[in-house]
Amino acid sequence: MIGGIVVASLGSQLAIPDSIYKFISFFLLIKIGLTGGIAIRNSNPAEIFLPALAAVLIGIVIVFISRWTLGRMPGIKVQDAVATGGLFGAVSGSTLAAVLPGLDAAKVPYEAWTAALYPFMDIPALVTAIVVASVYISKTTGQAEKVEIWPIIKESLQSSAVTALLMGVALGILTRPEPVYESFFNPLFKGFLSILMIIMGMEAAQRMNELRKVAQWFAIYAFIAPILHGFLAFGLGLIIHKLTGFSIGGAVVLAVIAASSSDISGPPTLRAGIPSANPSAYIGASTAIGTPVAIAICIPLFIGIAEIMLGR
User: Fold this and answer.
1) Which fold has domain 17-201+214-309?
2) What percentage of the chain exceeds 90 in pLDDT?
3) Domain residue limits, the chain
4) Of 232, 249, 37, 1, nearest to 121 (Cα)?
């Protein structure tokens, strides 16, 4: 990612076609989904219940954290703060793709099915943000509009990121994809992930200018929130670890997806669900600061904590 930031900052004309980016994202999410599906097929469903419940709660709580912190800052519209909370509560598929090889490299064990926690955090965060914003707008304008929940859930499930991930999970559970997984998906994973990190670094550098349109409070929030959310989720993960034996590595995955902010499913869902919110505020804060903080700070931070806890 640092290489991409440096290249873009130096004004290089290097450009990677959007179609390649979409293919790489699809490949990585399918592979992650397959890994999770195979693990779910070979595991006890009861093991997944508490981590999935924690993911749901974290996604919802993050929205309210933003509502009552960022939303109270001077000059910040409540709907902008809620949309930001929804985006930061939802999950980045690329950040999820980055943490797993990091855990593998550090030899920190984790349950492969933790990748399947993605939609359990992503969808509740987006739904909660749209509902909270709709209720607030209805109260302030005096127009009591009914909030339709199912269309929000449906749109989130139909997003490219969640669809690819869930398709991989379903294939891992319902079929026996191990031969093609080992011969095709596994060998290419790290190479494609490296390219994705370069793309994301370039995009982050290019979007820095968007922060000029955003109040300083969004920049401060975007830096602090991923770390705060990560520690909140890591703490819950450790509680589950004590109760059920959930791995320390699994707690790291939970922390990192909480630290991430949606880069695929979130923006279009929030634009449609909270049209009065300013996209340059919540998307600019996420892509220019939130995602780099999640990848460059939160991933090594929580993996490092896990290694210390494991006595390394």
Assistant:
1) Na+/H+ antiporter like fold (1.20.1530)
2) 36
3) 17-201+214-309
4) 232
